[in-house]
Amino acid sequence: xxxxxxxxxxxxxxxxxxxxxxxxxxxxxxxxxxxxxxxxxxxxxxxxxxxxxxxxxxxxxxxxxxxxxxxxxxxxxxxxxxxxxxxxxxxxxxxxxxxxxxxxxxxxxxxxxxxxxxxxxxxxxxxxxxxxxxxxxxxxxxxxxxxxxxxxxxxxxxxxxxxxxxxxxxxxxxxxxxxxxxxxxxxxxxxxxxxxxxxxxxxxxxxxxxxxxxxxxxxxxxxxxxxxxxxxxxxxxxxxxxxxxxxxxxxxxxxxxxxxxxxxxxxxxxxxxxxxxxxxxxxxxxxxxxxxxxxxxxxxxxxxxxxxxxxxxxxxxxxxxxxxxxxxxxxxxxxxxxxxxxxxxxxxxxxxxxxxxxxxxxxxxxxxxxxxxxxxxxxxxxxxxxxxxxxxxxxxxxxxxxxxxxxxxxxxxxxxxxxxxxxxxxxxxxxxxxxxxxxxxxxxxxxxxxxxxxxxxxxxxxxxxxxxxxxxxxxxxxxx
Amino acid sequence: xxxxxxxxxxxxxxxxxxxxxxxxxxxxxxxxxxxxxxxxxxxxxxxxxxxxxxxxxxxxxxxxxxxxxxxxxxxxxxxxxxxxxxxxxxxxxxxxxxxxxxxxxxxxxxxxxxxxxxxxxxxxxxxxxxxxxxxxxxxxxxxxxxxxxxxxxxxxxxxxxxxxxxxxxxxxxxxxxxxxxxxxxxxxxxxxxxxxxxxxxxxxxxxxxxxxxxxxxxxxxxxxxxxxxxxxxxxxxxxxxxxxxxxxxxxxxxxxxxxxxxxxxxxxxxxxxxxxxxxxxxxxxxxxxxxxxxxxxxxxxxxxxxxxxxxxxxxxxxxxxxxxxxxxxxxxxxxxxxxxxxxxxxxxxxxxxxxxxxxxxxxxxxxxxxxxxxxxxxxxx
Lengths: 480, 381
Hints:
CATH class of the domain at 64-129 and 245-376 in chain B: Mainly Alpha
Distance between the termini of chain B: 35 Å
CATH architecture of the largest domain in chain A: Orthogonal Bundle
Structural class of chain A: mainly alpha
Largest sheet of chain B: 4 strands, antiparallel
Strand content of chain A: under 5%
Strand content of chain B: 5-15%
Shape of chain A: extended
CATH topology of the largest domain in chain A: MetI-like fold
Distance between the termini of chain A: 62 Å
Helix content of chain A: over 70%
CATH class of the largest domain in chain A: Mainly Alpha
Mean pLDDT of chain A: 82
Oligomer: heterodimer
Number of helices of chain A: 21
Order of helices and strands of chain B: HHHHEEEEHHEEEEHHHHH
Helix content of chain B: 55-70%
Strand order of the largest sheet of chain B: 1-2-3-8
Radius of gyration of chain B: 27 Å
CATH superfamily of the domain at 64-129 and 245-376 in chain B: MetI-like
CATH superfamily of the largest domain in chain A: MetI-like
Number of strands of chain B: 8
Number of domains of chain A: 3
Largest interface: A-B, 56 and 58 residues
Order of helices and strands of chain A: HHHHHHHHHHHHHHHHHHHEHH
């Protein structure tokens, strides 16, 4: 038998090192574990500082003993390779393991063991743990804001319907696949707007924009039958004509009055709030900022100097200012720019402001994709006789957009994370509602629970989005 | 120029001019109706409001312009603190994410995923309303290392009391100038004779020795003032002396640096991963030592990838510091676009000044970055 050398372990006497090392390592874990879960101090007979560092020293010695390269034992090799490559790594690993063991009991007891789940008033929360009864009582407010309780089914119904309509793309057969872009870019936003307007807001059946929507739908349908030679002139003239005809010729006062009957109780946007408002704001901003950003990026790369410099100025302006000042502008400065009798709803102003703000970021992301395409793609498209729009729609954008999926997803993530800022104009989404609930005299002192709850909600949403974008990226990566 | 090129430009121009004309016409009409005249003269008027925390002397008798400066300096203060800490945390975490140690890599990844996916505003609220509110009252605060007091009313830390501070500052400046000369000399020497000079150790030596000399010869004197608890009234205590960091500043700086650090960590990781393995092997094969490989081959290439997105993050941090308004830290937005706007009612002037300030800041930095990018870009033939 070889001599045991405890300063440098080797493959001879493998098991001697292994057993002593593992027992030392387990001992150190056991000491910390007992100390943190059962507040038992096994090493209390030692002087203070040594007792404090003893687990670290023992564990370090243990890890040192089992650090044997190519031992032939698979499990040991994996451990050595991953957490125990050298002295420094071993020390850091130990520190992390101990920190996790130490922090588990207080976290567990705060979250679950000492927490209160039942009850509907502050008195129910007497324990030292979290008061989840607070979240339970305020749950409706956190989700729907000040929206009347009896009417909340309208929000649920709209969201379910919109989610269902949004999922249509997954079920589309090959035959309908080519219309999906049209559906998602034009038809779906209009349906979504109508849902929000009629159901959630409870608007009248006819309103000023109705004429515009009807005119647009009619002219698009007729547009399919117009020869492509005249299409540009057609779309310049016909929609406006139909709009004027509808507004001033076909619909008489009586008809309009009839149309203004409300189907549902009107709920003003000031009462909207909670998580549903987060969804509404981010959904609409997402829909609007993408096309605006697309046009801005094309404008920035255009050969036409006026369009180019206007786009550059626009993009750099929005990218240079913080969102909070943009919201300030939309709430205090923008009304000064409108005629006195004209009033735009607070929520609409916010959505426009955030959309323009994020559009500048989307534009820069898309520009990155456009720049990454080789010149040959442009030349090839031009040599086939394609014009500017045909070249971009059929050749350039499909490739460029594929390249920038992660970037666009990041921008959308930033958009979702920016929605709490709308508290500046007095709209209270989930974080705003938390701050309101926190100051309620009957529920003082539960700020922590509220913020932890909101953090978990946002983490789930944003993490799911980032994972989804990662999957999309992987899916489209191979095709180029 | 054919017709097809002029028409769209003309249309865009007309639309933009119409929109601007519409807005400014309405603004004029609205202001006339309310009896306000447009102008920046109000900046020199007396502000008559107070600001809790300011780096320069300020009270209600100063002008609105002074209030603007107070806000701007506070914004810069919190941004600089945030940038320093975000860089330190970001670099450490970014390197940790590249570690071969599974536990370290996972811990760093969890940190990044967690703090990146929670809105910054929520984090600021969390630190301010939940975490820092759990600290003890001043009279119950236990000193950390005997001199730091972490209380609910803010952090009280020892302050330096200087004599002849200007001489000390001159000595530091002299040290920096000397270092620049040493570097130039070392470069010239290496180009002409191929001899390397240990620039780093000389620089550190200069930075320590010159300020030390100022202590012995220049009459510079520094003493430490430790905060001492003092009773204001029966139930109210505070600390006298030392430096007070208000809780608003701390929670803002904490949230900003923890949030931005996650993005910087990703930049660092991408940068180091972006240097191909062949570069390191090639450098080692021509006989460079590992330190030289890191200093002369890996770092210059990694920095080229790291620096542009990181500056972008610094810019984002500066813009995000405007969220201070939510917890009443007196930054530019709160002092100027908040209080001053409420008092004067001059929405257009004040919001435009605030926006222009941020715009100038970002455009200056991005112009500098473009110049720097061009300078360090690989010169291909």
